[in-house]
């Protein structure tokens, strides 16, 4: 993701907020910010929130799509002054039903740039700039699981055992009439990865059903894209953004559907299935984005307690929210990695070090495999055999040859939920 | 194949409500009374998906605080008509939508020309006092036009939909929920996640159809019924069907009051309630009344659903149905308790609601207090022509900082709260009531952009459900608490 | 409730940290180092630094397919274990659950995949396909039909196909050791 990031780099938005203020501008917010409340943190200081909102708080918004547009608007109206936006996309026509910072004339332009320009025009005094680090808070409004796993892992790894490096992540996601908003305090609360198994699974169908016993229009479309395309057009890479390709898939699926007396194959459904299109509407985005920004505001100003740590929303059958504390998963591959510092002799061989790990009562490893945490170089692996043989000669080498002072080793073992990170300190 | 621009633009929502819903949306005419921050947020979420037209009725002149919390105003709007200014900016969002503005005092309009509102498919009010609201509600009700009433203050939001019965939208009951499942068209994933209660009810219905409406009674019939369920299983791994099978016997028994409970009902202490009777027997008698009358032979529903293999959404939907029913049941029981207490000359609050059922009361009480507060705030407004607005809460060390005005602000609002509680016969004093009163004083009638947007999203979503007649709307009020990020649904 | 703002902010050192391997990588590493690979399975990595793409060969020591070497490619994306590994047979073989293009019909590779499953589960599943081909979930309908109606005939067809001969006019790859 990092290569494709686009940052807005806009000069000229640097006027102080005060010069942009007009009488009464913040009068709604000041009611809350200038007064103590019974539920507010005792450390809350009634003072316009200037110190935090105006001067020190920098917020990073990831995603300038349906949620992102809403988030930017809400943050700007809530007094946040330093906001940066990252998005990788350009604007498409199908964004216009909810991504309200864009107009038909913007189609094809980069989202992050258009969105931030719009916000600065409409809500004066907000500046974006291109510092990447030093954000107090990151708000994520992404539709991709992969991108969210990436930012989550990045923020958890950033902590590196030092609590002052914690950066709070507020994450929002929607799908049709449903959504969720959550507060992730890396290493302390459950993280995005911890809840991966709560995600609705992508709809997939048994390949044998697709091949032999189709019942649904989706089965026919999957057949066209997963089985018939590779067979008929093995040399052409399918591009789901190419309308001619979609047209081919649609016609192929339609033919197959007729053969099996299945109805319901449409161009739109074909597109939906092969691109895995998730329905998205303005109202759900508004609810989730506003909830994220409300949490961001409460977190930053301490004017009210913040969400601990998950709110689920469903609007298709009545209106229901469920607020609960999602628990950290011990075997989470992102935040479940235990991290210890070990003092070891500079003379120790890899084999002796492994023996030492097995004997060490407090960790109780059985068959540890070791790699360098940054280079990923294999130090010694118990399996598969091909790597066992390759790394066996390392057993006689000194650990120091492969792992320098202060470097980290990733250890995996059947007795560990996921892995153990050992920081090496030679004595 | 040619896909037109409009279909492309609305692709992501057409996947939810299809062309029929879109057409309904495009012919709907929405009226917003008062172009507040929350009002504009509702319209934004309706203009973007392509509502037919919107009209803003508002005679306010834009001031600095409006521009501060409303995205659809700029500093240059200050001094101009709010109706006109927000309409212009909202209209920019979607060229397919027509926007109108009417710079007229809404209260005067309701008073003098209520028929003006009959041209709309739905009317939304923000910040309208109770009296004109009642008149508007009356007018719209008779014309079968839905009315949405909305309030936000500080971190709290509330809305209610007044929906004339004729509007014919699907309200959810367990029976109807079961009907939303078409087992045959579900894919294996969905099929493997049908909640078992739904499986049982679906096959029981089928059985009854084939057996003159009778339940399986003999052991042979029960086995046959199990076979029927078994036959619906698509593969050996479908745990939800196993769950249904293991509970099949329950579906075959006519639900009735357990024998032990019947015995208790027959106890003479239950029969002869006097002023000396203990709370326990009074409650038992109230439950007996429920069983004999409203319960039609059944005990009040406990309202908890055992865990079962299902999608979260499906499980939650069912939980809601159970809870809703449980709430209704328990409030009937409570009414019986009160009747009994009155008849024996004891005060109705001598048995706390907690004793009757502590679980649901705690659930809903915390949020209903916010509704009470909003209504009390409106009463305050009616007599003072302004909202309660003062710093009334202080840490213990500097409690003396509270000014005389602040103290009186707090106690005035509290008086209104108590008046309302009295009017509604709410006798158990809500927990932390003072804290909630402090919060309302602190909020000072303010409208926060985040809460405006959140409530705006909720309201617009309900309006879309009503207009498209798809999905299930709320019945009939929602209270959202942005301090604890929780919402509750009430029938008010 | 954690008091985030009592934690002092330090922005300067944040950029010095080197990026660590991704969650998907660590998970694959855990899966690989804990594999209990039987003698009938071998793995090789075209690029040993790339743990996400590798080949697997299965040499069944019993059943219809004894004596053959069956090759599969594994392709794991960065969304593992949210997404299952993509597995294809790289030879054209006669098997009820593997089609002529190499698609494999194994439930845990698609609709029944869960993040708690791991590479070992997939290997066990593949191994099982060669010991007990399943005629009820066919991908190669002809082969499944043969297995269902005439096991002897099926066995003969398997032997023919493994030698690189044709079955009903369709030629298969020679997979004999």
TrEMBL record, chain A:
Keywords: ATP-binding, Ligase, Nucleotide-binding, Ubl conjugation pathway. It holds the Pfam family E2_bind. Its EC number is 6.2.1.64. One of its GO terms (biological process) is protein neddylation. The keyword Ribosomal protein does not apply. Residues 342-427 form the E2 binding domain. GO terms for cellular component: cytoplasm; nucleus. It catalyses: ATP + [NEDD8 protein] + [E1 NEDD8-activating enzyme]-L-cysteine = AMP + diphosphate + [E1 NEDD8-activating enzyme]-S-[NEDD8 protein]-yl-L-cysteine. It comes from the Eukaryota. CDD domains: Uba3_RUB. GO terms for molecular function: ATP binding; NEDD8 activating enzyme activity. The active site is at residue 208. SUPFAM superfamilies: Activating enzymes of the ubiquitin-like proteins. Pathway: Protein modification; protein neddylation. Catalytic subunit of the dimeric E1 enzyme, which activates NEDD8. Belongs to the ubiquitin-activating E1 family. UBA3 subfamily. This is NEDD8-activating enzyme E1 catalytic subunit. It comes from Funneliformis mosseae (Endomycorrhizal fungus).
From TrEMBL, chain B:
CDD domains: APPBP1_RUB. SUPFAM superfamilies: Activating enzymes of the ubiquitin-like proteins. GO terms for cellular component: cytoplasm. Keywords: Ubl conjugation pathway. One of its GO terms (biological process) is protein neddylation. One of its GO terms (molecular function) is NEDD8 activating enzyme activity. Pathway: Protein modification; protein neddylation. InterPro entries: APP-BP1, ThiF/MoeB/HesA, ThiF_NAD_FAD-bd, Ub-E1_IAD_1, Ubiquitin-activating_enz. Residues 10-476 form the THIF-type NAD/FAD binding fold domain. Pfam families: ThiF (PF00899). Regulatory subunit of the dimeric UBA3-ULA1 E1 enzyme. Belongs to the ubiquitin-activating E1 family. ULA1 subfamily. This is NEDD8-activating enzyme E1 regulatory subunit. It comes from Funneliformis mosseae. The lineage of its organism: Eukaryota, Fungi, Fungi incertae sedis, Mucoromycota, Glomeromycotina.
From TrEMBL, chain C:
Pfam families: UQ_con. Its EC number is 2.3.2.34. GO terms for molecular function: ATP binding; NEDD8 conjugating enzyme activity. Pathway: Protein modification; protein neddylation. It comes from the Eukaryota. It catalyses: [E1 NEDD8-activating enzyme]-S-[NEDD8 protein]-yl-L-cysteine + [E2 NEDD8-conjugating enzyme]-L-cysteine = [E1 NEDD8-activating enzyme]-L-cysteine + [E2 NEDD8-conjugating enzyme]-S-[NEDD8-protein]-yl-L-cysteine. Belongs to the ubiquitin-conjugating enzyme family. Keywords: ATP-binding, Nucleotide-binding, Transferase, Ubl conjugation pathway. The active site is at residue 105. Residues 23-167 form the UBC core domain. SMART domains: UBCc. This is NEDD8-conjugating enzyme UBC12.
């Amino acid at each position: 993701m990092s290569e494709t990031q686009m940052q807005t780099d806009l000069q000229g938005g640097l006027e102080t907020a005060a010069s942009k203020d007009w009488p009464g501008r913040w009068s709604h917010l000041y009611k809350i910010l200038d007064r103590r409340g019974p539920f507010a943190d005792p450390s809350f200081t009634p003072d316009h929130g200037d110190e935090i909102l105006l001067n020190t708080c920098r917020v990073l918004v990831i995603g300038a799509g349906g949620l992102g547009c809403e988030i930017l608007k809400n943050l700007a109206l809530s007094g946040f002054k330093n906001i940066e936006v990252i998005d990788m996309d350009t604007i498409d026509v199908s964004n216009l039903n909810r991504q309200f910072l864009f107009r038909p004339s913007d189609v094809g332009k980069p989202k992050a740039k258009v969105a931030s320009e719009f916000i600065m025009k409409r809500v004066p005094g907000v500046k974006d700039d291109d510092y990447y680090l030093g954000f107090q808070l990151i708000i994520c409004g992404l539709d991709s699981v992969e991108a969210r796993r990436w930012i989550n892992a990045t923020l958890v790894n950033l902590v590196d055992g030092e609590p002052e490096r914690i950066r709070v992540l507020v994450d929002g996601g929607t799908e049709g009439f449903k959504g969720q908003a959550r507060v992730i305090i890396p290493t302390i609360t459950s993280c995005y990865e911890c809840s991966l198994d709560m995600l609705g699974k992508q709809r997939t169908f048994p390949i044998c059903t697709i091949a032999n016993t189709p019942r649904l229009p989706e089965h026919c479309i999957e057949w066209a894209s997963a089985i018939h395309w590779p067979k008929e057009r093995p040399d052409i890479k399918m591009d789901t953004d190419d309308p001619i390709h979609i047209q081919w898939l649609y016609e192929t699926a339609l033919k197959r559907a007729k053969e099996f007396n299945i109805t319901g194959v449409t161009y739109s459904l074909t597109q939906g299935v092969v691109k895995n299109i998730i329905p998205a509407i303005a109202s759900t985005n508004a609810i989730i984005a506003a909830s994220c920004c409300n949490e961001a505001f409460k977190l930053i100003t301490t004017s009210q307690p913040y969400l601990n740590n998950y709110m689920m929303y469903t609007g298709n059958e009545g209106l229901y929210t469920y607020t609960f504390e999602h628990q950290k998963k011990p075997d989470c591959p992102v935040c479940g990695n235990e991290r210890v510092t070990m003092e070891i002799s500079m003379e120790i061989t890899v084999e002796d070090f492994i023996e030492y790990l097995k004997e060490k009562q407090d960790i109780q490893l059985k068959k540890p495999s070791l790699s360098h945490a940054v280079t990923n170089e294999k130090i010694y692996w118990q399996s598969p055999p091909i790597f066992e043989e390759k790394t066996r000669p390392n057993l006689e080498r000194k650990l120091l040859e492969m792992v320098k002072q202060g470097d980290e080793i990733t250890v995996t073992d059947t007795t560990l939920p996921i892995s153990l990170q050992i920081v090496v300190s030679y004595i | 194949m040619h896909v037109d621009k409009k279909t492309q633009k609305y692709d992501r929502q057409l996947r939810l409500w299809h062309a029929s819903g879109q057409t309904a949306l495009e012919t709907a005419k929405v009226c917003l009374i008062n172009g507040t921050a929350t009002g504009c947020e509702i319209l934004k979420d309706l203009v973007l998906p392509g509502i037919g037209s919107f009209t803003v009725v508002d005679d306010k002149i834009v001031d600095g605080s409006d521009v501060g919390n409303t995205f659809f105003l700029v500093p240059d709007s200050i001094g101009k008509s709010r109706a006109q200014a927000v309409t212009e900016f909202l209209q920019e969002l979607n060229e397919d939508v027509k926007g109108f503005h009417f710079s007229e005092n809404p209260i005067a309009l309701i008073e003098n020309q209520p028929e003006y509102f009959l041209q709309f498919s739905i009317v939304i009010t923000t910040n309208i006092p109770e009296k004109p609201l009642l008149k508007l509600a009356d007018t719209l009700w008779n014309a079968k036009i839905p009315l949405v009433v909305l309030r936000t203050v500080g971190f709290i939001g509330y809305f209610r939909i007044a929906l004339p019965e004729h509007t014919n939208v699907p309200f959810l009951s367990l029976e109807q929920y079961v009907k939303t499942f078409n087992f045959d068209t579900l894919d294996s994933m969905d099929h493997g996640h049908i909640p078992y209660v739904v499986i049982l009810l679906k096959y029981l219905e089928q059985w009854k159809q084939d057996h003159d409406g009778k339940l399986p009674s003999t052991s042979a019939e029960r086995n046959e019924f199990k076979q029927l369920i078994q036959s619906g299983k698509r593969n050996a791994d479908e745990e939800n069907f196993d769950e249904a099978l293991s509970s099949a016997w329950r579906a075959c028994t006519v639900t009735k009051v357990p024998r032990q409970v019947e015995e208790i009902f027959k106890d003479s202490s239950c029969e002869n309630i006097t002023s000396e009777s203990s709370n326990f027997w009074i409650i038992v008698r109230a439950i007996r009344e429920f069983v004999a009358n409203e319960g039609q032979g059944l005990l009040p529903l406990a309202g908890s659903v055992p865990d079962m293999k299902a999608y979260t959404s499906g499980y939650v939907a069912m939980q809601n149905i159970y809870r809703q029913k449980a709430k209704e049941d328990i409030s009937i029981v409570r009414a019986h308790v009160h009747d009994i207490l009155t008849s024996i000359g004891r005060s109705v609050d001598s048995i706390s609601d907690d004793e009757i059922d502590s679980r649901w009361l705690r659930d809903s009480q915390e949020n209903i207090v916010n509704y009470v507060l909003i209504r009390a705030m409106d009463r305050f407004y009616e007599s003072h022509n302004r909202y309660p607005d003062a710093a009334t809460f202080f840490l213990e060390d500097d409690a003396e900082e509270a000014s005389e005005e602040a103290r009186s602000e707090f106690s005035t609002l509290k008086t209104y709260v108590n008046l309302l509680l009295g009017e509604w016969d709410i006798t158990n004093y809500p927990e932390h009531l003072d804290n909630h009163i402090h919060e309302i004083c602190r909020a000072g009638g303010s409208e926060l952009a985040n809460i405006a947007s959140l409530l705006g999203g909720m309201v617009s979503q309900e309006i879309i459900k009503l207009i498209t007649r798809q999905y299930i709307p709320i019945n009939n009020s929602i209270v959202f608490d942005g301090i604890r990020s929780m919402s509750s649904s009430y029938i008010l | 409730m954690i008091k985030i703002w009592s934690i002092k902010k330090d922005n300067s050192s944040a950029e010095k940290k080197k990026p660590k391997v991704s969650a998907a990588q660590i998970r694959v590493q855990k899966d690989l180092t804990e594999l209990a690979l039987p003698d009938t399975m071998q793995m090789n990595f075209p690029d040993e630094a790339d743990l996400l793409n590798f080949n697997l060969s299965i040499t069944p020591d019993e059943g219809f397919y004894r004596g053959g070497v069956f090759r599969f490619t594994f392709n794991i994306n960065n969304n593992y274990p949210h997404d299952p590994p993509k597995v294809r047979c790289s030879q054209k073989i006669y098997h009820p659950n593997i089609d002529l293009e190499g698609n494999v019909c194994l439930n845990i590779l698609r609709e029944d995949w869960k993040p708690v499953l791991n590479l070992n589960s997939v290997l066990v599943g593949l191994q099982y396909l060669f010991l007990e081909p399943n005629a009820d979930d066919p991908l190669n309908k002809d082969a499944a039909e043969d297995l269902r109606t005439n096991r002897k005939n099926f066995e003969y067809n398997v032997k023919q196909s493994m030698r690189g001969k044709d079955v009903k006019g369709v030629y298969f790859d020679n997979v004999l050791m």
